[in-house]
Write a structure and sequence with these properties.
Elements lengths: L6 E11 L2 E12 L2 E10 L5 H5 L3 H5 L5 E17 L7 E14 L5 E13 L8 E11 L2 E10 L6 E11 H7 L5 E16 H6 L6 E15 L2 E2 L2 E10 L3 E11 L2 E10 L1 H6 L4 E13 L4 E2 L13 E14 L2 E13 L2 E11 L2 E10 L6 E12 H7 L1 H6 L6 E14 L12 E8 L2 E4 L2 H9 L7 E4 L2 E8 L2 E11 L2 E10 L3 E11 L5 H12 L13 E11 L2 E7 L1 H27 L11 H17 L18 H19 L1
Parallel strand pairs: 16-18
Antiparallel strand pairs: 1-2, 2-3, 3-4, 4-5, 5-6, 6-7, 7-8, 8-9, 9-10, 10-11, 11-13, 12-17, 13-14, 14-15, 15-16, 18-19, 19-20, 20-21, 21-22, 22-23, 23-24, 23-25, 24-27, 25-26, 27-28, 28-29, 29-30, 30-31, 31-32
Helix pairs in contact: 10-11, 11-12
């Protein structure tokens, strides 16, 4: 070291890079504008391929003690020139491997005939002038040759790549040479690829400035991971590379009992992998059977399926059978789109649960949490099977568990999902309509309890003909506006709410033939009539009873309230009408003994009888009103009614005399 002139001479220096021993010689002299160097370095004479491999971090970090190598290997380089601020001196590094052998102790598989000529060089100046080149790399893996090359220029400003690869490998042999944690991989990989282009062109999608060609083929490939189930196998697949797109041809996959194949193309793949650009594509998915419940994430902390971003993919699906839990879909066809972490269904049709469905909606993880919205048009679905297969139906419609038959529905729903992809009930909202052309309800306690009170067995089993009902789901309950249906000769108007906690608050307005009601039921109705302030002269029940039932409580222990006010009103009207008819008849007999012969009545006599009849009806409380009319038509004020009755008797007497 000449400290005064800042000149240094390096002789017989030795250092180690991992396992690679390096000899360093040369000189370094200070100049006015930099540092002049003349340094050479090389591997020690005893260096082997194992020492060169130690420079690869992935191999050196794991199982390096088991590495076994053979063949000749060399490493040398130089730096000669002036280093200035912002400029480097010319330099070069060369690696030479000849007839190398690589493997692991205890493994039979060996990579042989490894020949590599690689160098890193720069004429000096900017580091961007550096060129990394491995023009000819070859090896043989268990009798299968593979050849490749790699060149990179302008590594700082805008890297330009030239890459080739060709050959075929057995993947299980490759993983014996380069182990993959938790992964089992086997099968044949065939490749014949060529690429050249700049990084900026790949990022910006300027595919006209790049050259990409070749194919990747897979045969009898299987893939298994400790944290995923089931394992995958690919009997055959072929991917064709073009500058603007990847094209899938004859790509078939099997997983457990599932199988599917897909074909199509994806564009923008370079910008997706090398930048933050989006990738677009359209593929056709064909499957004979998909058992989606087989696909499991076996990690201890199971997380929901988070959809990828920066992908716009349209999938035309044609699936013969798709099984999800207890759902068994057949002939599934439609368009499935993936956009910005949102998976959308467009007019997807399928056969399931004995009927057909048309699905629209989406599954989204934009905010890191899954949520969904969908609409369903279902035709002739088996209600019993649906109840067992769709957990949400058990919450929204408990009566479905006691029903048999087919229903059709149109439903719009939206909800949030938990990490297990189950609905979060407090977020469920929507509306819909359900129709049926024939439904049997057996043993539904809230209805059969009404039948028990009325001593009639017609309500134990309801054979419902055509019926339709609307419903709204919000704030933890299902609200159903009034809808009509008939059971034999029983006519029902029903409405109410059903809570997610299986609570009920329903009203059934029933028209029941009195012949259906047994002795205990008639005694109950008569007792209720006796408690009403309106006394009915004739307590005998009419042929048809109007009974309103209020159902409250929970499905398994409902509370029933009966209201027979409408029946009492009808009985009062019937009684008043009967009294009026008897009085009018008696007056006719006394005043007009020949009234049976209407031809002998004078006009004044007919007018007199009509006036008497009308006044009697007013006095007796509307006994002549049509009993089939609605209560709204009889909505007169109490004051008017009372006044009419008070004036009625004097007017009647005046008419008579």
């Amino acid at each position: 070291a000449d400290l005064e002139n800042k000149n240094f001479i390096l002789r017989k220096n030795r250092l180690k890079l991992n396992e690679l021993g390096v000899v360093l010689d040369g000189a370094v002299n200070s100049t006015e504008d930099g540092m002049e160097t003349d340094i050479s370095f090389r591997s020690e004479e005893s260096v082997g391929l194992r020492d060169i491999v130690s420079l690869l971090p992935a191999l050196y970090a794991e199982n390096f003690s088991r590495v076994e190598t053979g063949g000749n290997a060399g490493f040398e380089g130089w730096v000669k020139g002036v280093w200035r601020k912002g400029e480097t001196a010319p330099f070069g590094v060369m690696i030479d491997i000849d007839d190398g052998v690589f493997g692991y102790r205890g493994e039979k598989v060996r990579m042989k005939k490894i020949d590599v000529r690689a160098d890193i060089s720069s004429p000096g100046g900017s580091m961007d002038n550096t060129v990394i080149s491995a023009q000819d790399m070859t090896f043989d893996l268990e009798g299968r040759p593979f050849r490749g090359s790699f060149v990179m220029k302008n590594p700082v400003s805008d890297p330009r790549f030239e890459v080739t690869a060709s050959g075929n490998l057995m993947l299980e042999h490759l993983t014996s040479i380069y182990p993959l944690e938790h992964i089992d991989l086997s099968g044949e990989l065939l490749a014949d690829l060529s690429f050249s282009g700049r990084m900026s062109d790949m990022k910006e999608g300027r595919t006209a400035n790049t050259r990409t060609s070749g194919t990747i083929g897979l045969k009898n490939v299987s893939f298994a991971h400790d944290m995923l189930r089931p394992p995958f196998s690919v009997p055959s697949a072929r991917i064709t590379l073009q500058p603007s797109s990847l094209r899938f041809e004859s790509a078939g996959v099997r997983a457990g009992k599932s199988d599917f194949s897909f074909s199509g193309s994806i564009s923008g793949y370079m910008g997706y992998f090398f930048a933050d650009n989006a990738m677009q594509g359209r593929v056709q998915l064909v499957s004979r059977a998909l058992y989606l419940d087989e696909f499991e994430n076996l990690e201890e902390e199971k997380k929901p399926l988070l959809l990828p971003e920066r992908i716009a993919l349209d999938i035309e699906a044609d699936v013969g059978r798709a099984v999800v839990r207890d759902f068994d879909f057949r002939e599934v066809r439609g368009l499935i789109s993936l956009r910005d972490r949102k998976l959308s269904l467009s007019d997807v049709t399928a056969s399931t649960l004995g009927g057909t469905v048309k699905l629209k909606g989406y599954y989204s993880t934009r905010d890191g949490k899954p949520d969904t919205e969908f609409s369903v048009e279902a035709t002739e679905m088996n209600i019993a099977t649906s109840y067992e297969s769709v957990p949400l139906i058990k919450t929204l419609a408990p009566v479905a568990g006691y029903s048999r038959g087919d229903v059709s529905a149109a439903v719009d729903m939206n909800m949030k999902l938990d990490d297990a992809l189950k609905p979060i009930l407090e977020t469920v909202s929507g509306k819909g309509r359900i129709t049926t052309s024939g439904l049997k309800v057996e043993g539904f306690l809230p209805v059969s309890k009404i039948g028990s009170l009325l001593d009639m067995d017609q309500l134990d089993t309801l054979d419902i003909g055509e019926a339709s009902l609307d419903f709204v789901v919000d704030d933890g309950q299902v609200t159903t506006p009034p809808f009509d249906f008939a059971v034999n000769d029983i006519f029902v108007t029903a409405s109410g709410t059903t809570g997610f906690d299986r609570t009920l608050d329903w009203v059934l307005e029933m028209t029941i033939p009195s012949s259906y009601i047994g002795p205990r039921g008639k005694q109950l109705v008569t007792g209720l009539l006796d408690k009403l302030p309106l006394k009915v002269p004739d307590i005998s029940l009419p042929d048809t009873l109007l009974i309103d039932a209020r159902i409250r409580g929970i499905v398994s222990d409902p509370e029933i309230g009966l209201d027979i006010a409408r029946t009492a009103t009808r009985m009062s009207e019937r009684a008043a009408r009967g009294i009026g008819e008897r009085i009018t008849g008696a007056l006719k007999d006394r005043l007009l003994p020949d009234s049976a012969d209407t031809t002998t009545q004078e006009p004044g006599q007919q007018s007199l009888l009509k006036g008497i009849d009308g006044q009697l009806k007013t006095i007796l409380g509307g006994g002549g009103q049509d009993t089939t009319a609605t209560e709204q038509k009889a909505d007169t004020s109490k004051t008017d009614s009372s006044s009419a009755k008070e004036k009625g008797l004097p007017d009647l007497l005046k008419s008579l005399f």
